[in-house]
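Quick one, probably user error.
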């Protein structure tokens, strides 16, 4: 992984590369994050952003992340080794996530593509045969939640650049209401006593295995093993969990091998 195919065969990879190349032509914001930028936020958010090291760092316009880990489709399903690369852009919002996996010896390629308020997810076997083609309002809202989640976990300085209304709900918890595409998604953030972000939970995301049938369950991404990526303190590992009526379904375990704010073309 990833597959080495020409663009006319590897249509998902080609789409990803075109989107990223265009996004990287956008100008980056000027200036650095200051204490004055943190002043309007609830105390727990100020502690979090200072702990993450964003003060004094350049303002965020985009970021790149690389993942590795494993995923499964259903309860009792076989864990698939995965690798992924993601580029996220803030103004206008866009998220491009390209994942490669292997199931029963067959390579799968997955492309999540969010441009503004519209999102799609496509899955191909052998990078040729489409097995999932998800789109529509449920997909749009789900990707908005994922986008917000990524900002919180992987690029906390970006939270100063997007429309979020915050409420501190306890000594180590906060509610974030992120406005996106004419709607709003909400998540609860939890923090360690030191201020590291350890959890993100939202009830606004939809689960779908086939891209046609959707069910809305609480979704969480517990994060751990915080370390430095350059000057930023961020989690290096995390899970993705659906909280279904019959119990928790852990479906992904990731390690973040690279997190780069404001990558150059």
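Nope, works fine. Designed sequence:
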């Amino acid at each position: 992984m990833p597959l080495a195919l020409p663009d006319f065969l590897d249509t998902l990879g080609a789409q990803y590369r075109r989107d990223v190349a265009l996004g990287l032509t956008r100008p980056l914001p000027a200036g650095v994050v200051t204490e004055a930028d943190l002043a309007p936020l609830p105390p727990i958010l100020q502690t979090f952003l200072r702990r993450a090291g964003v003060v004094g760092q350049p303002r965020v316009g985009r970021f790149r992340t690389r993942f590795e880990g494993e995923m499964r489709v259903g309860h009792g399903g076989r864990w698939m080794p995965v690798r992924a690369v993601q580029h996220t852009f803030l103004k206008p919002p866009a998220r491009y996530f390209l994942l490669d996996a292997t199931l029963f010896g067959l390579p799968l390629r997955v492309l999540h593509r969010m441009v503004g308020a519209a999102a799609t997810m496509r899955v191909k076997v052998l990078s040729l045969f489409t097995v999932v083609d998800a789109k529509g309002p449920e997909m749009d809202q789900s990707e908005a939640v994922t986008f917000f989640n990524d900002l919180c976990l992987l690029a906390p300085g970006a939270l100063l650049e997007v429309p979020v209304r915050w409420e501190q709900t306890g000594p180590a918890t906060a509610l974030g209401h992120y406005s996106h595409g004419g709607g709003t998604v909400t998540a609860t953030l939890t923090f360690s006593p030191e201020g590291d972000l350890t959890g993100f939970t939202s009830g606004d995301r939809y689960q779908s295995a086939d891209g046609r049938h959707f069910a809305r369950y609480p979704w969480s991404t517990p994060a751990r093993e915080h370390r430095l990526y350059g000057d930023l303190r961020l989690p290096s590992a995390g899970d993705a969990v659906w909280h279904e009526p019959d119990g928790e379904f852990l479906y992904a375990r990731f390690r973040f091998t690279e997190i780069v704010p404001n990558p150059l073309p």
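The mean pLDDT is 95.
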